[in-house]
Specification:
4-stranded antiparallel beta sheet; two-stranded antiparallel ribbon; 28% helix; 6 strands; single chain; alpha+beta
């Protein structure tokens, strides 16, 4: 697997919620779910390659899965990693549906 193929597999999905919309408006940041083994440098390069934008900084956060009950059984949600991507001023990513 070459370097570009690896970069295409790092970003899993954008995280769309009320909180991420507030972060996007206030701080010009976008939030993505990423592979757990991805580094900040790899995430930076992947975002610039995929979306053709300039990235200012990357912050990552490992989220531990919660313990949930399913009737009388107990289960655990999967853990995941998310990345807060700060874009340079004037850069923009839009995930709106219907545009």
């Amino acid at each position: 697997m070459n370097a570009n193929e690896k970069l295409y597999k790092i970003i899993l999905a954008p995280r769309i919620s009320e909180k991420t919309n507030r972060v996007a408006e206030k701080l010009n940041q976008v939030v993505f779910d990423v592979r757990p083994e991805a580094t900040k440098a790899e995430i930076h390069d992947a975002i610039e390659l995929l979306f053709k934008v300039k990235v200012q900084s990357v912050r990552t956060l490992n989220v531990q899965g919660k313990v949930k009950r399913f009737g009388s059984r107990q289960g655990r949600q999967s853990s995941y990693k998310k990345a807060y991507i700060s874009l340079l001023p004037g850069q923009e990513m839009n995930f709106s549906i219907g545009e």
